[in-house]
Specification:
By secondary structure, the chain is of the alpha+beta class. Among the domains are: about 30 residues; about 230 residues, no CATH class. The chain contains four helices and 16 strands. Strands 3, 4, 6, 7 and 8 form a five-stranded antiparallel beta sheet that branches. Strands 12-9-15-16 form a four-stranded mixed beta sheet, with no helix packed on it. The chain has a four-stranded antiparallel beta sheet with strand order 11-10-13-14, with no helix packed on it. Helix 1 runs antiparallel to helix 4. The radius of gyration is 39 Å and the shape is elongated. The N and C termini lie close together (about 10 Å).
């Protein structure tokens, strides 16, 4: 009886060890979860799978234009898009009520805090109701806005052209196990070339925890942000340290690709060519030389004649012309000196600011790995070896008995 009890104990320990090992190993082999299915879904005649919700912001208690969220989606062909909130107001694309494109970006505003809302999308004149279930969202409690923290990047097509209309999503992710853990809600924007080229900018100060009840607190030096971009020309995604996308860091570029993977190019700041500043040459200073007194001579008066008068007029004309030329030369010299004196180096001239907008993606980002899994794997291995030794020891003890 004692022998049976010992063997049962050893078997139970061995089973528990294998269970623990399987528990720790499964996450290593499981595929990475799709971070934003609506952004990576293929475009079909029904745009429902591509509808994404983002930028949920509530800053006032009660109805306010500043309480809002964003609905974005993609379509096969260029068409007009709208969002109808319940049985009430209809909201147009931010690019205009008549704007037609294959990407659609609508801000739904004038919302109340802590309220449930349902909505449908109208795309190409047809109403989509999420298979009659409608889309729904609940606004969070009012949270005072944080100091803006803007990240900036660029989106380009595979041929190097500007990715006008590309949708861009961003999600903050904890990288140092401090401040807020896990991942934030999704933030978004759209690239509008007329408003600032192929740049996008997103304010991470709007990030919230998944249920929108608290702000997401991050460390720009240690935490990360996943960027996903998507348009009719392709998709791309890339994870960055937050401070890599914040000025004065040079904004990197996401390059869209038809294969859905895309790539990212890190921009390198190029110093401007040296600018030469004109240097004033020393200006000669005229020195007045005192005239030497000339002895007065007594001469016999000669009757005036016509010739001396002609000579005098000619001399006066030449003197007048010389004086005019001297005056013009002095004025030109003074003007050149003044222009050179006030000339500023090109690198001191403030460049005009470039307006930048926002953008969306469809790329499955690389699976994140967690170094702690290797530690757990080692622990599991130790447990297996320990269980084996324990089983052998019990076997020999039983046999000896």
């Amino acid at each position: 009886m004692r022998n049976f009890s010992t063997r049962r104990t050893v078997l139970l320990a061995f089973i528990l060890t294998l269970t623990a090992l399987a528990f720790f190993l499964l996450p290593l082999d499981a595929p990475a979860a799709d971070p934003l299915g609506c952004a990576t879904a293929p475009v079909t005649a029904d745009p429902t799978p591509t509808v994404c919700l983002s930028n949920m912001v509530v800053v006032f208690n009660g109805v306010s234009p500043d309480n809002q969220f964003v609905v974005s989606w993609r379509t096969v062909k260029s068409e007009k898009g709208q969002v109808r909130l319940g049985a009430g107001a209809t909201f147009d694309d931010i690019r205009g009520s008549e704007y037609q494109a294959t990407t659609h970006y609508v801000v739904v505003s004038n919302l109340d805090a802590k309220t449930n809302y349902t909505f449908d999308i109208i795309s190409g004149g047809k109403t989509y109701t999420n298979n009659n279930a409608h889309w729904s969202i609940r606004t969070g409690p009012p949270l005072q806005p944080e100091t803006p923290y803007t990240i900036i990047g660029r989106v380009s097509n595979a041929d190097g052209s500007e990715a006008d209309g590309a949708l861009v999503y961003a999600q903050v992710r904890d990288g140092d196990k401090k401040d807020t853990s896990g991942r934030s809600t999704w933030l978004s924007t759209i690239v509008v070339v007329p408003d600032g080229g192929n740049f996008f900018n997103i304010n991470l100060g709007m990030a919230r925890i998944p249920n929108n009840t608290q702000k997401y607190v991050f460390d720009a030096n240690n935490d990360r942000v996943l960027i996903i971009a998507s348009s009719a020309q392709g998709k791309a995604s890339k994870g960055f340290k937050i401070n890599e996308l914040h000025p004065p860091a040079a904004p990197p570029s996401l390059i869209l690709a038809e294969n859905g993977v895309g790539s990212a190019a890190t921009a390198t700041a190029t110093p401007p060519p040296p600018t030469f500043t004109p240097t004033l040459s020393p200006t000669a200073t005229a020195t007045a030389t005192p005239l030497t007194p000339t002895p007065t001579q007594t001469s016999t008066t000669i009757p005036p004649s016509a010739t001396p008068e002609a000579v005098t007029e000619t001399a006066q004309a030449e003197a007048t012309q010389a004086q005019a030329e001297a005056t013009q030369t002095a004025a030109a010299t003074e003007t050149a000196a003044t222009s050179a004196a006030i000339a500023m180096p090109a690198d001191k001239v403030e460049t005009s600011r470039t307006r930048v907008y926002g953008g969306v993606p469809t790329v499955i980002p690389p699976r994140e790995t967690n170094n702690i899994n290797w530690t757990l794997l080692l622990l599991a291995a130790v447990l297996i070896v320990g269980a084996g030794l324990l089983g052998l020891a019990a076997f020999f003890v039983t046999r000896k008995s």
